Amino acid sequence: MTSRNAAATRQRILEHARTQFAQHGFAAVAVKGVADAAGVSPNLITRYFGGKDGLFLAATKVEIPVTDSFDGAPSALGERLAASIVQRWFGAPGEDPLLVLQRASGERPEAAEALAAFLDANSLEPLHHYLRDNGLADAEAYRRAAAIDAFVLGVSTRRRVLRSELGTPTDLQAWLATTIQRLADG
Fold first, then answer.
1. Structure pTM?
2. Which of 70, 71, 93, 186 yields a CA-CA distance of 20 to 30 A from 124?
């Protein structure tokens, strides 16, 4: 097997794992089921990922350019963040590693830790710095960033994990934009 084929096989396994973990949660997913869906032997999952735990951690690696939403005036922060959030939520929900982490965080301590670390590093802290750099005192900037972070996580959990309908993407984006802006403005 060439390294190119190995890389493609590894990627195919990860894509199927993301989908299955997002749809069914950690406990319900079997290595054999992922292997069958990817058209490979379960031994390859052990070889590439060390087993189900390693596969889960690899499948839930999250990379989101959240800081792109911080380019611009504070008065339009809610609009930029809401547009980014709604685009992610209505994109490819079955394969979103952030959704996988959200759903698994109640059953896997490492998923909860990974989700918290991701949110701290990619949401809370950059938002805190953005608000502070735009004129708020450090403690107030942190308080507002934490409120926005908690609000978005709560709405995300309600919509994506509990699967509640919260309106059309357009309506949801408008509501998120308004609420995030109010939280940012204090």
1. 0.74
2. 93
